[in-house]
Specification:
Distance between the termini: 89 Å
Radius of gyration: 33 Å
Number of helices: 19
């Protein structure tokens, strides 16, 4: 049987309780408790323990049995239970669990023999009926008692309560703070902060929140209004540069700027361990994914130095620095991009110039996807397109679709946008067979103000113009543009308008077409910026010409 060394733990608990401000004047701080500095009783003895097991008809779990060998019960000690764990007071609770709390109507301590681990320990439950919360499970009686000890300290955490335990906890928090600045064992330091928080130590909560926020990739206080992050020192320059890159959609460049400079970051005094303010920045926050947040934490900063393990991050091949924004194919993921969409890519001009060529009116300040979608509805609303950088040498204008695709009335924005350069236009409408709305994939390439080549696939029809390159042959990219007989017959019988049959766009075809455009033109759209970021936008000129 595993032997548990209860006495040092219970001695410390007794001493901490006697020294705590809450013990003075309490009735349960009996004279012998204060005199002996002991909250327990005499050991139960082997015979009495064996008698209890005979009465219960079962062998006790190891940690509780060894507890009784040290003390026959335990006084309140800040637990809210007047008495627990005495040989005479332990009994079956409703026939299924072992009840340990002897004199309490509001808090029950239970052991469950039907939930036993490999060491023979029974699961322990703390049930507080007054809280309205479900019982809390612990792996063993020992784990339950340690949790109650932490509860006592948390309830006694006032400035005047200082003893050996609080000093040890505070020293551990300070050591973990310094280790965090050196990028050392971040998960281990998080455990230290968690334990200190459970003991009620005042500094640990803020440090834990910083680590948890960066590891989660979002600020802990989601209700707070995002404000620009303005650190001091050299890191401020990197933040300003990264913000400029991110607001035009170049989130990879923004991340590289931050990751390169994070070693220059300095905390505000001794109560901060990481640049968590980045997460609350409305433009830079979306740049910090959980992987990137971990990279920031594992990079020495604020004067911290590694004591082992070499340089942080492992160079530019570290997972947090690898871009996930590959080409255009992520748009075919109906979770990443749930609706129809359209975009224009223009080579060799800035995002501001793209906005001027495809839009009307002033450039709108950075906003997220939801804000601009709301602007697109209402009687006087105009669809908007967001603009930004689309990889090496390209800029983009991207928008969701609020009107049906009509090839014969299309006013291709790529023609206007390609003056003096070249442009690629794509419009994807996924379609819906149930609503008799055929899917469509439109692509065109324009140079110096005129369409050169392209195609439109809609339902079971393919239209081509110009000399389409072999790599972009729509008949190869959309082999599924055939109408199943049952769909075609139903459509022919019930259709109210002439046109292509209502075949929804195949997701595999959509992916292959986007992949071909990625390879052929070397372009990419920034998923992170479009889905989570804040980009400039402009009211879009009509893509469908009025008749």
């Amino acid at each position: 049987m595993k032997i548990y060394n209860w006495r040092p733990f219970l001695d410390r608990w007794s001493a901490d309780w006697i020294d705590s401000p809450h013990a003075e004047g309490r009735e349960d701080a009996a004279e012998e408790v204060v005199r002996d500095r002991w909250l327990g009783f005499a050991p139960a003895g082997a015979e009495r323990i064996a008698g209890l097991e005979d009465r219960l008809g079962t062998e006790l779990p190891p940690s509780f049995r060894s507890f009784l060998a040290v003390t026959d019960g335990w006084r309140p000690a800040g637990t809210g239970v007047p008495l627990l764990g005495t040989v005479d007071g332990v009994h079956w609770h409703k026939g299924a669990e072992l009840r340990l709390s002897v004199a309490s109507d509001l808090t029950d301590l239970l052991l469950d023999p039907g939930d036993m681990n490999g060491d023979g320990e029974w699961a322990a439950y703390l049930c507080r009926s007054w809280s309205g919360e479900p019982p809390v499970r612990y792996e063993s009686f020992l784990d339950l008692m340690q949790a109650l000890f932490r509860d006592f300290h948390r309830g006694s955490a006032v400035p005047e309560f200082v003893n050996a335990t609080t000093r040890e906890l505070d020293a551990a928090v300070e050591e973990a703070r310094v280790a965090c600045l050196a990028g050392e064992d971040i998960d281990g330091q998080l455990d230290v902060f968690e334990d200190a928080v459970e003991h009620g130590r005042p500094r640990a909560g803020a440090f834990r929140a910083e680590l948890a926020a960066l590891l989660d990739g979002r600020p802990g206080d989601v209700g707070a209004r995002p404000l620009p992050y303005e650190p001091d020192g050299p890191f401020r320059v990197a933040v300003d540069t990264a913000r400029e890159q991110a607001r035009w959609g170049d989130t990879d460049a923004a991340w590289r700027t931050l990751a390169t400079a994070v070693g220059t970051w300095e905390p505000y005094g001794n109560e901060q361990v990481a640049p968590v303010g980045l997460l609350a920045d409305p433009v830079l926050g979306p740049v910090i994914t959980p992987e990137r947040g971990r990279y920031l934490l594992e990079t020495p900063r604020g004067g911290g130095r590694r004591v082992r393990g070499g340089e942080a991050g492992g160079g530019w091949d570290a997972p947090g620095l690898v871009s996930r924004e590959v080409g255009l194919t992520w748009l075919a993921d109906h979770v990443a991009q749930p609706g129809d969409y359209r975009f224009v890519l223009v080579r060799g001009v800035s995002p501001e110039e793209v906005a001027a060529r495809v839009g009307e009116g002033v450039l709108l300040p950075p906003g997220d996807e939801g804000e601009f979608q709301r602007r697109s509805f209402g009687p006087d609303a105009r669809p908007v397109v967001r603009v930004g950088s689309a990889g090496e040498g390209w800029s983009f204008a991207f928008g969701t679709v609020l009107e049906p695709f009509r090839s014969g009335q299309l006013a291709d924005p790529g023609e206007r946008a390609s003056r003096g350069t070249e442009a690629v236009t794509v419009w994807v409408e996924r379609g819906d067979t149930a609503a008799a709305r055929p899917g469509a994939f439109y692509f065109s390439y324009a140079e110096d103000g005129r369409r050169v080549y392209g195609f439109a696939v809609r339902g079971d029809e393919i239209e081509e113009w110009g000399d389409v390159p072999e790599a972009l042959d729509p008949e190869e990219l959309f082999p599924g543009a055939e109408v199943p007989e049952d769909v075609e017959e139903e459509y022919v019988e019930h259709a109210e308008y002439a046109g292509p049959a209502p075949v929804a766009l195949e997701v595999d075809d959509e992916f292959e077409a986007l992949d071909a455009l990625t390879d052929f033109f070397g372009v990419a759209l920034p998923q992170l910026a479009l889905r989570r970021g804040r980009l400039h936008a402009v009211a879009a000129r009509p893509w469908i010409a009025a008749r």
